[in-house]
Specification:
By secondary structure, this protein is an alpha+beta fold. Helix content is about 40%, strand content about 20%. Among the domains are: about 45 residues, no CATH class; about 100 residues, TolA/TonB C-terminal domain. Strands 3, 4, 5, 6 and 7 form a 5-stranded mixed β-sheet that branches. A two-stranded antiparallel sheet has the order 1-2. Belongs to the TonB family. Keywords: Cell inner membrane, Cell membrane, Membrane, Protein transport, Transmembrane, Transmembrane helix, Transport.
Length: about 220
């Protein structure tokens, strides 16, 4: 039986055992064919007992995975910026209108205080003839004298006289607003100017001058 050298190589990928032999005078191992078969069987049993190796994971890949998981767990979502709500223009306009109204009222008060002779077209309390409208109509009917010239000419109509009731109730600034005939106009003015004092008009509790108009009718029988 010749002298042989055995080289055993284990391949973990397929868990196989490769045996190589060659003639060598420097290797002092003598095995017969039976010993070789036994040795191979022992190696096969040993290999079968070795558990398969778990596949290795590259360190860089594992580290990147852990960092990604950490980032996904600790990532804070962005909060959108919300601008503060400004006051609406409507509120500003309302405030401006209120201030303007107050200013106008103050200016009106000052104007009235500076001009006590102001003549109102309308007052809070209008002037009144003593006894009211019925007494006024009675006064006119009893005091008007139909001009003779107008009677001869058959002239008739309605003369409107406007005047101012002063703060003391007297009649001032009377003039013909609507004319019919010079003689009739003159008679209407005479009757109006001859009226007794009226109750003066009032504005904010004070006597004021107020315009007033009265119609004087001239009608022939």
């Amino acid at each position: 039986m010749g002298e042989e050298k055995f080289t055993l190589t284990y391949n973990p990928s397929d868990r196989s055992l490769q045996v190589e032999t060659e003639k060598s005078g420097s290797f002092h191992l003598f095995l017969d064919q039976r010993d070789l078969a036994q040795r191979l069987a022992d190696w096969e049993a040993l290999i079968a007992a070795i558990p398969p190796e778990a596949p290795s994971v590259p360190e860089s890949k594992s580290q990147n995975t852990e960092e990604a998981e950490y980032d996904s767990q600790t990532e804070i979502p962005e909060v959108p910026y919300i601008a503060p709500v400004e006051e609406t223009d409507e509120r500003e306009e309302a405030e401006r209108a209120r201030l303007q109204a107050e200013l106008a009222a103050e200016l009106q008060k000052e104007a009235e205080a500076e001009d006590p002779n102001k003549i109102y077209d309308n007052a809070e309390v209008m002037p009144e003839y003593p006894g009211g409208q019925v007494a006024l109509m009675r006064y006119i009917a009893q005091n008007v004298k139909y001009p003779k010239s107008a009677q001869e000419n058959g002239t008739q109509g309605k003369v409107v006289v406007q005047f101012v009731v002063d703060t003391d109730g007297s009649i001032i600034n009377a003039y013909v607003l609507t004319s019919v005939d010079p003689d009739l106009d003159t008679e209407a003015l005479r009757v109006i100017k001859s009226m007794p004092r009226w109750t003066p008009g009032k504005q904010k509790g004070k006597n004021v001058r107020v315009k007033y108009a009265v119609s004087v009718k001239f009608r022939l029988p």
